[in-house]
Write a structure and sequence with these properties.
Chain lengths: 456, 660
């Protein structure tokens, strides 16, 4: 009996701790660096990149599609499009994200609000349309423009960009289960409904855009862009419309991740877009960049309080280079920033997160939007499209095709071009967000079997 | 042998100081938060909502005595913490973490029997081949005392287990060596499920969030009397209709946005309305307005009005289920659009005209900025079929679509004794718009009602200028008994001519954020067009209807009723505020642009020589033209549901698949 009680106490004092020193960890981390920390991880080389692609009038079947590119050098199809799945309509395809088990890819759309859920685990080389959420706006109580689909345990948190009352920027976060069942809507804090949040500055606009989480600090962070009227509008028309130009988000909100309640609203003027959080266990901070003012902002915790601070300038703000996608390296030392207007990617040293310094820049094309890098940073991929009615139309073809997917190897912040896919020439459309797929996620078999799959 | 192996592991654990890992990542080789003190304050029980995710599925399992039971029987009526695990799990941040956290919870709640007796914990193996009831009994050795019930379960086989794993989306992958032999480890994502007494999943915890403090507070929240078992408590709202037009403002008004001192005043997204008797509005005299004359044969009823209102707010009535009438004619923006100079349509297509208010449009005989339609009934099909607005490919398409939307079932028949058709759809939309009448303004009560102090002295001076020196009244007519403030004619003021000449300054000021206005090169954006058909045609006004060159750039005289709340102004929304408008007319419009002369400029346009004060007086006068029932109409509009596509509606992905 005494032994039994002792053992219970041992369990009670934690069946825990140092097993890690004597046992081999199950997972090895290797994945693009912007994914949810809840996400299942790729082991080694990614096999495919899934490109969520906007349909384009006059190009191929003119509808949105998920395009699969083979990116494993061991594959005989390396560097080629091996398939695509058209989904019907031009829905303003934009961002996509996996469920936490990485079995399904949720590809969201900003216009019709449809969310296309692809099965990517049954056959990673051939994503199959599994389900379409057609009633996102009705289910959510009027939220328009599902943007980020961010994995939480067993659930997806989705940021809206707009609402069905005025197509402006006030919006909400919407939570679904992994099987596509609506759970709840959490309004972004506005002056009229701060929902317990503290308005730390001048703005509480209620706009939304991206989501990231730091679970160890019980924090979720959201940024703010603009509503349907603006993101669907022709960019030239928008720039000439003073009323519309006054309707961009100027806030970042720090949330209590567990309770889904907003805690602080920060002034981050100029449409803060993508958010990337540091990976280091004591690096309690995230970065975002502002599209209109070309600033790098640090959202950080100090003395148990969260703060927002501008820590760097991107290009010449007076020329509106328009920072878009960003990517943090796994060691938290560099931040890659794409600037859409001039087609550049810029690498900032963020070793001191309070002082981001540009160390190198590369021209990628006439325009560039998204980038995704492998966890080790050895491979980086770029695509071009920003929004269907913002993309440059009749631009001179001086830097290669206007709509492309480009693959590079990376070393010491230099890029080694591997291949380019011209999405117009291949009659595909306008490529937007990329997500990685790999056989290793779904079977722990020997590599040679995966290779056989690749070659099949 | 099994017992010895587990005991050895536990002895290793016993001599380890977990504080080693407090500042380390728990990602692979150090410890998850559940082993240490929580580094943030756990949310206060009852202060938050835990929504219900899905029903917790049932399945057959085996207890440590080898007896088969159903999960639901084991759940009983308790709050359940369920963890899928296997006894030989070697990942310290996997199954052992869940076990450790369960131990912590049990130790704490055993001392709190009021709560503890309402909680049950379950460790269910996903390795039935190795985790027999005996192994699970050993694994749970020493946990059978105390208040909190903790059960260790397994299944007969993978055939019994797989359905359970699937229902809980618990993914497992068995690991193999290079020869294809199972090496005894199972890769999985750690998940612990919080299940309420009604057997609904309320939370799912992973490695980074699995901590006893968090779980216990979540359990307490589910039991909290004021949180209604953790579900959302929505405060009831008392709806009172304030008189006037205080609600006529964009949800996130941007007045003064260019200033560094700008502060937001964004409204809640909660849509609260109060239905009003629109039939009564259409059938009652309104001070300052003429008698409503409906199209011959119109028999307005409440059913027809309600149907028209439903359709007006229904986004499904556009080709892509995105654009309703109310998207461009926003109730709180005076049934116009304050946030856009010119409208944006299906797929973001550019329209070249400002969305006019539809308030009092039932009193007009010429509709659209170019005056091409003469009845509400005919006007309806313009935006419904326009490729750049709602983009329905054909009338028949829309008629068929409405017939296939379940919540329109029988509504047309009840209102019109016949189904949806070109005729009844026109009439229904018109029925609602016939009721959007708004008069009895401060001006009306002063001018027609005899209330001497209904408007300010400045506004009275403005009226004098309006009807005298400024000659506004020539086109914006005021009658003896009523005033529509429009002659319903079309005039060339030069605004359209200027836009067609495309003479823009090389640099233009653009406010990027409050306090930051920069000069940008207009050529950098002016010619940025994604598609060829997006190149905006010049807007030649009435000429586009008549092809008469003398009609170039003629646009309809807008009614000035409710003008304060319906900006921006002019047919293209080029002027942002009323002062800009008065200044435009004070200069006599646009006579020339570069070398081009505006030959068709209306002879009624001439410099007015108004002083600054006089222009301000006129603006003050214009602000007296807002109807007294604007709030009532806005709240009524907000009481209407916004039509959104549901799973029952026609869509290629639904069972209700449209057939053509």
């Amino acid at each position: 009996m005494k032994i039994r009680k002792l053992m219970s106490t041992v369990y009670g004092m934690l069946m825990s701790s140092f097993l890690a020193l004597v046992l081999v960890p199950t997972h090895v981390f290797s994945d693009e660096t912007c994914m949810s920390p809840y996400m299942a991880k790729i082991v080694g080389q990614e096999d495919y990149v899934y490109v969520w692609t906007l349909g384009q009038v006059g190009v191929g079947d003119e509808q949105d599609k998920l395009v699969t590119v083979a990116v494993n050098p061991a594959s005989p199809h390396y560097g080629n499009v091996i398939g695509h799945t058209s989904v019907g309509g031009r829905n303003e395809a934009h961002h996509s994200g996996f469920t936490d088990d990485r079995h399904y890819l949720w590809a969201a759309t900003l216009d019709t609000g449809k969310i296309f859920i692809f099965d990517v685990h049954t056959n990673p080389s051939k994503p199959k349309l599994h389900k379409v959420i057609t009633d996102f706006t009705k289910a959510s109580g009027g939220i328009v423009g599902p943007h980020t689909t961010y994995a939480l345990p067993g659930r997806m948190m989705i940021s809206g960009l707009s609402n069905n009352q005025d197509f402006g920027g006030r919006t909400a976060l919407v939570e679904y289960t992994n099987d596509g069942t609506y759970v709840a809507t959490y309004d972004m804090p506005t002056d009229g409904n701060l929902n317990g949040a503290v308005k730390t500055g001048q703005f509480a606009d209620g706009y939304g855009y991206d989501i990231r989480a730091l679970p160890r600090r019980n924090v979720m962070i959201t940024s703010s862009f603009t509503g349907w009227n603006n993101y669907m509008m022709n960019l030239g028309k928008l720039m000439g419309d003073a009323d519309a130009m006054g309707r961009f988000g100027n806030t970042v909100v720090v949330w209590d991740l567990h309770t889904r309640k907003p805690k602080k609203v920060f002034d981050v003027p100029g449409a803060p877009l993508e958010i990337r959080c540091a990976w280091g266990s004591s690096n309690n901070y995230c970065f975002t960049t502002t599209a209109l003012t070309s600033q790098i902002w640090l959202i950080y915790e100090k003395d148990n309080e969260w703060h927002a601070e501008s820590v760097g300038t991107i290009g010449d703000p007076s020329k509106i280079p328009l920072p878009v996608d960003i990517s943090i390296t796994a060691d938290d030392k560099h931040l890659w920033v794409n600037t859409w207007n001039d087609g550049m990617t810029r690498i900032f040293d963020i070793s001191d997160p309070h002082n981001a310094v540009e160390v190198k820049a590369h021209k990628i094309g006439d325009q560039v939007n998204m980038l995704s890098q492998s966890w080790d940073g050895n491979r980086i991929y770029f695509t071009t499209s920003l929004l269907s009615n913002w993309d440059k139309g009749d631009v001179p073809d001086v830097e290669g095709p206007p709509q492309f997917f480009k693959a590079y190897d990376q070393k010491d912040n230099d890029l080694i071009h591997k291949f380019t896919i011209d999405f117009a020439a291949e009659k595909l459309g306008m490529p937007h967000q990329m997500r990685f797929g790999a056989y290793s996620l779904y079977s722990k078999t020997a590599d040679n079997k995966n290779l056989a799959e690749l070659n099949r | 042998m099994e017992k010895l192996r587990i005991y050895l592991l536990l002895l290793v654990v016993f001599f380890i100081n977990p504080s080693y890992a407090q500042e380390q990542s728990y990602t692979s080789t150090v410890l998850a938060p559940g082993y240490n003190q929580l580094t943030f304050d756990a949310p206060v029980p009852g202060s938050y909502v835990i929504p219900s995710y899905m029903p917790a599925s049932n399945g057959d399992v085996i207890d440590v005595d080898g007896l088969t039971k159903s999960l639901h029987d084991i759940y009983d009526d308790k709050i359940v913490l369920l963890n899928f695990m296997y006894s030989t799990c070697t990942d310290v941040n996997g199954c052992p973490l869940a076990t450790a956290v369960f131990h912590k919870i049990k130790n704490i709640l055993d001392k709190d029997p009021v709560i503890g007796k309402q909680v049950s914990m379950i460790s269910l193996s996903f390795d039935p081949e190795n985790d027999s009831p005996d192994v699970m009994k050993l694994y749970g050795d020493g946990t059978d005392s105390g208040t909190v019930d903790w059960k260790f379960l397994t299944t007969n086989s993978m055939n019994d287990l797989d359905p359970i794993l699937n229902k809980y989306s618990q993914r497992i992958i068995k690991e193999y060596d290079e020869k294809g032999n199972y090496i005894g480890s199972i890769s999985h994502i750690l998940r612990v499920f919080l299940i309420d007494k009604d057997k609904n999943i309320r939370s799912i915890y992973s490695v980074s969030f699995l901590h006893s403090d968090v779980l216990i507070n979540d359990i307490k929240t589910l039991l909290h009397p004021e949180s209604q078992n953790g579900t959302m408590v929505v405060a009831s709202t008392v709806n009172v209709v304030p008189s006037g037009s205080s609600l006529a403002r964009p949800g996130d008004a941007k007045e003064g946005y260019e200033s560094g001192d700008y502060v937001t005043d964004a409204q809640s997204l909660v849509r609260t309305g109060v239905a009003t008797d629109l039939y009564k509005i259409a059938n009652s005299p309104i001070l300052g307005l003429p008698e409503l004359k409906m199209k011959e044969g119109t028999d307005l009823t409440r059913e027809k009005i309600a149907l028209g209102r439903k359709m007006f707010f229904d986004r499904r009535l556009s080709h892509t289920d995105t654009i309703s009438c109310a998207i461009c004619h926003v109730p709180e923006m005076g049934f116009a659009h304050n946030e856009l100079a010119t409208a944006v349509g299906t797929e973001g297509r550019s329209n070249i005209r400002n969305a006019p208010t539809i308030l009092n449009s039932a009193l007009l005989t010429r509709l659209f900025h170019d005056g091409r339609e003469h009845s509400l009934e005919n006007q309806v099909w313009g935006p419904l079929l326009s490729h750049k607005e709602m983009a329905n490919p054909a009338p028949g398409y829309l008629i068929k679509k409405i017939k296939n939307i379940p919540d329109y079932d029988n509504l047309f028949e009840e209102a019109y004794n016949t189904g949806p058709s070109i005729d009844t759809i026109s009439k229904a939309f018109a029925a609602y718009q016939y009721t959007l009448l708004s008069g009895n303004s401060d001006f009306d009560r002063w001018y027609y009602g005899g209330e001497r102090n209904a408007i300010s002295n400045s506004a009275k001076k403005g009226f004098k200028l309006f009807t005298g020196k400024a000659a506004c009244i020539t086109c914006h007519v005021i009658g003896d008994d009523y005033a529509l403030f429009t002659d319903e004619k079309l005039h060339n003021t030069g605004m359209g001519f200027k836009a067609s000449m495309h003479v823009e300054p090389p640099m233009k000021k653009v406010t990027l954020v409050p306090g930051l206005t920069i000069d940008i090169d207009t050529s950098s954006y002016r010619d940025n067009v994604a598609f060829k058909d997006e190149i905006a045609p010049n807007d030649l006004g009435l000429y586009t209807v008549t092809q008469d060159p003398y009609d170039r750039w003629k646009f309809r005289t807008a009614s000035l009723r409710n003008v304060e709340i319906t900006g921006p102004y002019m047919h293209n929304g080029a002027l942002q505020n009323l002062k800009d408008v008065v200044e435009f007319y004070n200069k006599g419009g646009i006579k020339e642009s570069g070398k081009m002369k505006n030959e068709m400029l209306s002879p009624l346009m001439f410099p007015l020589n108004l002083s600054e004060n006089e222009m301000n007086n006129i603006v003050d006068f214009l602000k007296t033209l807002t109807g007294s029932n604007v709030n009532e109409l806005i709240l009524d509009a907000k009481a209407a549901p916004i039509g959104e596509i549901s799973l029952n509606d026609p869509n290629w992905f639904h069972e209700n698949k449209p057939k053509y």
